[in-house]
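Second attempt. The first submission of Methyltransferase domain-containing protein had a stray character pasted in from the spreadsheet, which I only caught after the job came back as garbage. Lesson logged: always re-copy from the clean sequence file. Corrected sequence (259 aa) follows.
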Amino acid sequence: MQDGASFFQGVNLRVGFYDRLFTHAANLAGEEDFYRGFTAETDSVLEAACGTGRLFGSLSGPGRLLAGFDASLELLRQARKNHPTVPLSLQRLESFAFGRRFTRIVVGYYGLSYVLDAAGRTGHMRCLAAHLEPDGRALIHLPDAEILRRPIPDHEMAAFQGSRSIRDQATGFEGALTHRVSEATLEADGAVRAMHFHFALRNSQGAILREETAAMRYAILDEDDLARLAASAGLRILDIRKGFSEGIDSELIAILAKA
Ligand SMILES: C[S@@+](CC[C@H](N)C(=O)[O-])C[C@H]1O[C@@H](n2cnc3c(N)ncnc32)[C@H](O)[C@@H]1O
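This time the job returned cleanly.
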């Protein structure tokens, strides 16, 4: 079984430019306001699989403990640079351990979908339950399962490409980072969607200076899968949403509590 976390690890273009590449998606509209509301009036928040700490601004609050962990040393380094006061650790969703509980635990932006094996997801759910205060809430944000399962139409494949301009003041470098998805496949008898990315760093004339390919793999999980997982760890689904704001229905956002 592939490790879904490996896409986010190493010294490479996709990790070095993670925030530029992956965090401007239209389906995330309303996310920050939603998280501000979800964590309001709470005293402790854990972000599981926090990456670069992109969400820390909306998860932090006066007098509140905010902690984060991730499996990527390289993304954690960026998080530490951006948010030096947030305690961070290198841990996995499947087995994380803290010596305390939290009133909110956020497993944001598809984090759990990168745990490709069922035993890992069961382990994750147990860890969630063990770290939640008795009246606490956990949030799991996944991509919609039906969208991952169906064949991806050509116009959507075409939309998985783009170019971001790169300007580095320290070195004077000017160029662009381009990305596209060359192929989208189903693996593990249809349980995993793999998006095969191509990334290239180009100079201002468009010539390729560096390129790489990597597959992002998502476990396909629907509401019933989540409900079963939650029940296996003594949790239950309190609420389900399809997006953080009105008009978005491409997401599966579940709020969990102790059963
Ligand atoms: C799409 S990013 C989201 C990062 C951050 N939550 C955000 O909203 O920007 C997914 C994150 O999950 C992390 N990740 C994937 N599999 C993991 C695992 N098994 N344990 C811990 N972190 C994992 C990756 O390293 C990456 O930071």
